[in-house]
User: Which sequence fits this backbone?
């Protein structure tokens, strides 16, 4: 018998202003596993974890624990190979006692630590996350001058890069607006590389004049729901938003990145997710370039890249219904090849349609005009355009995910799903940030999963909302309590890389409605809509697994399910979640990450 004992813990201080993203990505990118390392522990083994607190949510998949339900813990967990074989207490469970008596069982004394199911990020962007690791972070900049000097220094330090890619720009840093000219002349003497800057939310991109030329943006036609900023003569001035960004800039970025670069991005994202405590991800805008890299990496790693990946294929608004439907057909073709029967850890499960933008950019579809300037924004798709797409997906057996943030778009999304989607196929709405009471209640009625990202409800990033939508409408923001009470299955996600991806940070915001980004901030956002702690942890594990039909094999700590779990040093108290420390991540019965603290 091998006996492992965890040592005493050192106190842990949360770094100030940490974004989660930077914290784990930058420090962990070098730690990804080689195929040899990942498979090294693959021999038939039994491991028993004792003296721990093994979280049992104890509810039927697809339902939520009550907000006040106390947690239930077992004290021991036994795994054999890739599966959980026992959960309970050594004194009352003969299977555990028998496992402990075997000579070759490895026994791990958890010394009071908690085991949670491996987290499943219910909404994230794999390729964008991976690529963001390779970009210059402008998140610390306050002004245009800061942005310019940061880029200038980076360009000088990286003369070999073919292009300068940056992330983390916020409109609040450049209140006077921006154009290509603001990024011209920042390169080193004699070089004029394309400079491309993403907003923090990834909804807009801004580039220099060399960037406009490299993108070929002079020839771009306007697209529905997109904005190409233009001068009086109609020439692009260097800022592309919403559908224009998705339709033109993202594919360009994907096309200029070579296969190796894209595979590296996926590998880095998986490593960052292991370090954060994830064993599953739901990609919410899969496309050809990313999928090709995922498949190549999977093959290189012997069919296993250490993550349960479920992907929703992005259907972009196009000029005709036939083009829209062709995208759905492509998703169906891939789902026919990559599904639970053929490649259970690497599946195309459905389609994603982006119904509107975001409140901060005033691109979310609202039923009443924005408060500060009286303008209105319509959803990107009309109901007439959306319905055939949803019907085709339904016919093809695909799941449907609709991004809807503003109340008008949410209403349309619920209407369309109620009319055209079968509850048995677990349709879902992403974000649901400003729902009416009526629509919040309707989600459960139609079996619609509320796919929510509490990190977007962080008070630190909502400072503009009262001005943009008025205080009365802010009271409706992020109505999670109503979604759950109405019977909607909840799935928690981070929307990384647009927001920090720490799973317990996400749970912290969902349960306390306080800021994860600025923990010293005491503001709460509609505390009446808070989730209970068990409820939020379940939504971040089994709820996210349920959202894409993974609940039969993962998401809970139960016999027969996959041995995907995390060891956490934590107290079961929402106010103490910021102090929790991930210690280990286990995937498929193998330890794929361990903290070096
Ligand atoms: Zn997203």
Assistant:
């Amino acid at each position: 018998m091998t006996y492992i004992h965890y040592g005493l813990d050192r106190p842990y201080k949360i770094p100030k202003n940490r974004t989660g993203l930077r914290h784990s990505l930058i420090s962990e990118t070098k730690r990804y596993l080689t195929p040899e390392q990942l498979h090294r522990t693959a021999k038939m083994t039994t491991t028993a974890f004792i003296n721990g607190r093994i979280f049992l949510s104890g509810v039927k998949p697809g339902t939520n624990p009550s907000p006040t339900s106390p947690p239930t813990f077992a004290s021991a967990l036994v795994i054999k190979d890739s599966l959980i074989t026992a959960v309970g207490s050594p004194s009352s469970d003969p299977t555990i006692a028998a496992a402990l008596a075997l000579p070759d069982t490895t026994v791990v004394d958890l010394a009071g630590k908690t085991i949670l199911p491996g987290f499943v990020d219910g909404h994230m962007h794999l390729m964008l996350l991976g690529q963001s690791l390779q970009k210059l972070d402008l998140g610390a900049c306050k002004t245009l001058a800061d942005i310019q000097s940061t880029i200038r220094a980076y360009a000088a330090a990286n003369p070999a890069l073919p292009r300068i890619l940056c992330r983390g720009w916020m409109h609040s840093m450049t209140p006077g607006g921006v154009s290509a000219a603001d990024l011209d002349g920042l390169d080193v003497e004699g070089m004029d590389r394309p400079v491309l800057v993403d907003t923090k939310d990834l909804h807009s991109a801004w580039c220099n004049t060399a960037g406009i030329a490299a993108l070929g943006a002079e020839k771009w036609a306007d697209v529905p729901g997109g904005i190409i900023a233009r001068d009086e003569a109609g020439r692009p001035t260097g800022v592309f938003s919403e559908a224009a960004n998705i339709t033109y800039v993202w594919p360009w970025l994907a096309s200029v990145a070579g296969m190796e670069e894209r595979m590296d991005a996926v590998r880095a994202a998986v490593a960052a997710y292991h370090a954060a405590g994830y064993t599953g991800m739901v990609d919410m805008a899969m496309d050809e370039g990313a999928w090709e890299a995922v498949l190549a990496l999977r093959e290189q790693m012997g069919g296993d890249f250490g993550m349960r990946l479920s992907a929703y294929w992005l259907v972009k608004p196009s000029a005709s219904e036939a083009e829209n439907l062709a995208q759905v057909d492509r998703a169906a073709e891939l789902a026919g090849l990559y599904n639970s029967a053929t490649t259970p850890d690497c599946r195309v499960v459905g389609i994603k349609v982006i119904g509107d933008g975001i409140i901060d950019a005033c691109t979310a579809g609202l039923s009443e005009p924005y408060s500060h300037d009286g303008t209105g924004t319509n959803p990107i798709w009309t109901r007439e355009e959306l319905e055939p797409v949803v019907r085709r997906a339904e016919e093809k057996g695909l799941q449907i995910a609709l991004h809807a943030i503003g109340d008008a778009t949410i209403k349309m999304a619920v209407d369309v799903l109620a009319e055209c989607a079968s509850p048995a196929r677990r349709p879902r709405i992403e974000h649901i940030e400003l729902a009416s009471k009526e629509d919040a209640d309707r989600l459960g009625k139609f079996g619609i999963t509320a796919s929510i990202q509490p990190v977007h409800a962080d008070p630190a990033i909502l400072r503009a909302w009262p001005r943009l939508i008025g205080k009365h409408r802010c009271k409706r923001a992020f109505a999670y309590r109503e979604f759950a009470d109405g019977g909607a299955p909840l799935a928690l996600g981070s929307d990384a890389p647009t927001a920090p991806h720490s799973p317990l940070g996400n749970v912290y915001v969902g349960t306390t409605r306080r800021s994860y980004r600025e923990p010293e901030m005491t503001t709460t956002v509609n505390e009446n809509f808070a989730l209970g702690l068990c409820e939020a942890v379940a939504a971040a594990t089994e709820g996210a697994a349920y959202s894409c039909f993974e609940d039969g094999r993962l998401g809970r700590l139960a016999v027969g399910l996959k041995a995907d779990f995390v060891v956490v040093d934590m107290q079961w108290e929402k106010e103490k979640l910021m102090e929790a420390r991930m210690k280990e991540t286990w995937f498929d019965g193998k330890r794929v990450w361990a903290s070096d603290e």
User: Anything to note?
Assistant: Confidence is low (pLDDT under 50) at residues 1-42.
